[in-house]
């Protein structure tokens, strides 16, 4: 009763085409912190498609990819650490094949986007979270067409769904020039809008087959160079307590909401609360311990608005735009961390204790069997 070798070979071959069991598959949603190039294909003011963005990104030879940092994003680093051999490509890139979903996954993230659809209007083009999830729905339909509903669900239940979003909603709230929310709703109501809209999207992903979630909270936005500058805290180096208070309030509600969802779902799904706020705050407070020399200014683009970080064609001016040593800076530009900071944050999210990743870290989530 031996199974003919040829049959075994055929089974193995067809499984290796679809089965993600031996590789890391990630579906990435979020804003510029994890955008891997989607905004390159939009008409938008939120772009990272010119040097020196990407200067330390070796897969592109230092050319810009649309990532809003000098090197890898946190999502890139986490994927690599878990054995991913290629980064999930941007959904909007014309040469991205939906078939990549079976192997590496897809990146739907878009700079300037938020949980709320209106967020980022000033930047014109961006893909809001709701649209990112509709785009995933398209990918899923393709998967179902290729391998059927059941196999698709098996693949999705073993994949990691990460969501890094909310910073732009908060930044917009504090921009007085946007006649949207400021002075209209209280910070508490604004937090509640964010949470209830976010919850709807998380539940939608669950209905579409997602089971392993990493939900990254909002970092200490009051400490980014942009906010320090507009709050005129440049010289004092102080963070905006008002902005950080709103972020902390939101994060607390987010954790409670995820706790509630974990309780309701039992073992059917896991929502990991990734506490980037505390990790980032620790780096800013104790920066020398992590090898940084500068914790409050951008490596690229200068300290004062409009913080343009791009290489001027005029070579005499271009030398002034970059700091001497990119590993010495926490911030790459006025909004985004350097790869050096991303490496530390990613390491804590992967391997950290319950204080930074609750109820389990990303490495455990990856091994967890739903
Ligand atoms: C798709 O195009 C981008 C930009 O030209 C390129 O960097 C990337 O390697 C291409 N990807 C594939 C899978 O061909
Ligand atoms: C899909 O799974 C369901 C429930 O487990 C089962 O009833 C059905 O026969 C499966 N369909 C296929 C095509 O395998
Ligand atoms: C989502 O946010 C909007 C504000 O953008 C708010 O009006 C709406 O009530 C929220 N939706 C839910 C279900 O809370
Ligand atoms: C290039 O930079 C130099 C020195 O900053 C300046 O004098 C010159 O006008 C610039 N040229 C152009 C074309 O911007
Ligand atoms: C940049 O800084 C890092 C960390 O402090 C250090 O290890 C490295 O040697 C520096 N590189 C240069 C070119 O000075």
TrEMBL record:
<dbReference type="InterPro" id="IPR035669">
    <property type="entry name" value="SGNH_plant_lipase-like"/>
</dbReference>
<keyword id="KW-0964">Secreted</keyword>
<feature type="signal peptide">
    <location>
        <begin position="1"/>
        <end position="23"/>
    </location>
</feature>
<keyword id="KW-0443">Lipid metabolism</keyword>
<keyword id="KW-0378">Hydrolase</keyword>
<dbReference type="InterPro" id="IPR001087">
    <property type="entry name" value="GDSL"/>
</dbReference>
<dbReference type="Pfam" id="PF00657">
    <property type="entry name" value="Lipase_GDSL"/>
</dbReference>
<keyword id="KW-0732">Signal</keyword>
<protein>
    <submittedName>
        <fullName>GDSL-like Lipase/Acylhydrolase superfamily protein</fullName>
    </submittedName>
</protein>
<dbReference type="GO" id="GO:0005576">
    <property type="term" value="C:extracellular region"/>
</dbReference>
<keyword id="KW-0442">Lipid degradation</keyword>
<dbReference type="GO" id="GO:0016042">
    <property type="term" value="P:lipid catabolic process"/>
</dbReference>
<dbReference type="InterPro" id="IPR036514">
    <property type="entry name" value="SGNH_hydro_sf"/>
</dbReference>
<dbReference type="InterPro" id="IPR051238">
    <property type="entry name" value="GDSL_esterase/lipase"/>
</dbReference>
<dbReference type="GO" id="GO:0016787">
    <property type="term" value="F:hydrolase activity"/>
</dbReference>
<comment type="similarity">
    <text>Belongs to the 'GDSL' lipolytic enzyme family.</text>
</comment>
């Amino acid at each position: 009763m031996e199974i003919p070798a040829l049959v075994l070979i055929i089974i193995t071959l067809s499984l290796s085409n679809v089965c993600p069991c031996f590789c890391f598959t990630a579906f990435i949603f979020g804003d510029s912190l994890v955008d891997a190039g989607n905004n390159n294909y939009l008409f938008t003011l939120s772009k990272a498609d010119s040097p020196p963005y990407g200067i330390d990104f070796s897969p592109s030879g230092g050319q810009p990819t649309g990532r809003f940092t000098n090197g890898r994003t946190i999502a890139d680093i986490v994927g690599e650490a878990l054995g991913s051999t290629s980064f999930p490509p941007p959904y909007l890139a014309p040469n991205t094949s939906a078939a990549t979903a079976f192997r590496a996954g897809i990146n739907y993230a878009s700079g300037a986007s938020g949980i709320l659809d209106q967020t980022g209007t000033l930047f014109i083009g961006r893909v809001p979270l709701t649209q990112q999830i509709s785009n995933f729905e398209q990918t899923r339909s393709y998967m179902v067409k290729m391998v059927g509903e059941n196999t698709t669900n098996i693949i999705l239940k073993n994949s990691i769904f990460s969501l890094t979003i909310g910073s732009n909603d908060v930044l917009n709230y504090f921009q007085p020039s946007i006649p949207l929310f400021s002075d209209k709703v209280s910070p508490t109501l604004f937090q509640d809008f964010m949470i209830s809209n976010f919850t709807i999207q998380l539940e939608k992903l669950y209905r579409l087959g997602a089971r392993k979630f990493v939900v990254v909270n909002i970092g200490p936005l009051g400490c980014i160079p942009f906010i320090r500058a507009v709050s005129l805290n440049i010289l004092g180096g102080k963070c905006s307590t008002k902005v950080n208070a709103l972020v902390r309030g939101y994060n607390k509600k987010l954790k409670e909401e995820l706790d509630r969802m974990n309780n309701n779902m039992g073992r059917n799904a896991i929502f990991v609360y990734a506490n980037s706020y505390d990790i980032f705050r620790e780096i800013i407070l104790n920066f020398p311990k992590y090898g940084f020399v500068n914790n409050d200014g951008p490596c690229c683009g200068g300290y004062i608005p409009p913080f343009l970080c791009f290489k001027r064609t005029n070579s005499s001016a271009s030398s002034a735009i970059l700091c001497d040593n990119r590993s010495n800076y926490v911030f790459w530009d006025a909004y985004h961390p350097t790869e050096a900071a991303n490496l530390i944050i990613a390491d804590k999210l992967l391997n950290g204790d319950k204080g930074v990743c609750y109820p389990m870290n990303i490495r455990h989530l990856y091994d967890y069997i739903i």
